[in-house]
Amino acid sequence: xxxxxxxxxxxxxxxxxxxxxxxxxxxxxxxxxxxxxxxxxxxxxxxxxxxxxxxxxxxxxxxxxxxxxxxxxxxxxxxxxxxxxxxxxxxxxxxxxxxxxxxxxxxxxxxxxxxxxxxxxxxxxxxxxxxxxxxxxxxxxxxxxxxxxxxxxxxxxxxxxxxxxxxxxxxxxxxxxxxxxxxxxxxxxxxxxxxxxxxxxxxxxxxxxxxxxxxxxxxxxxxxxxxxxxxxxxxxxxxxxxxxxxxxxxxxxxxxxxxxxxxxxxxxxxxx
Length: 272
Description:
Blueprint: H1 10-38, H2 48-60, H3 70-102, H4 104-118, H5 126-133, H6 137-162, H7 165-173, H8 178-215, H9 221-228, H10 234-262, H11 265-271
Helix pairs in contact: 2-10, 3-4, 3-6, 3-8, 3-9, 4-6, 5-6, 6-8, 8-9, 8-10, 9-10
């Protein structure tokens, strides 16, 4: 039996998937114990008990200055910005992706522009956005939208162009208009790709959010991380990074479940 044909069981997959995380936790525990043995006041690798105390303070106790529970108020502020930017980018990508993918004239007009925009580093636009839109919420939301929308548009254009020409011809033979072809033929087949593309862009969306919050914000997960870094508060930074990672994983899983629930046939396409 060749290794390429061996597949792990469900239990083996769970065990193998857990090993890297357990190895990382073990390495951290050993490193933390070693540094704290040499210097009990070391802040680089706090003990796990320190993490537990910090998480309890951030997630369950009101802040003495503001009265807010910091972890949840920061999460709410960041998620509002993230979901707003992602929502705008998704709607823009769907409309432009279908137009450019379906209509040759729109493709000739917009495809070069979208390609050029997608090559601009979004973080390089951040100072421009702050100058043009101010330091409020608008600039942060627009950065997220600009950061992920062009790549999503290009991906949806490719998906629309991949559709068999025979489907379009059959619809035209049955008397379908361009609008009907868009709604009945193209849209159902690009929607699963839209959700998958959004999943792939979640990491970039979080990156742009954290960058914007680090520069100009008074709340949010990125704001808190960069606020406490001057005090070397790794007991705050590490839990916040893990919390952001967990939120991203949950969003990724929810989107995949949404795609599988709304478009179950898309799983068959992946297996083909």
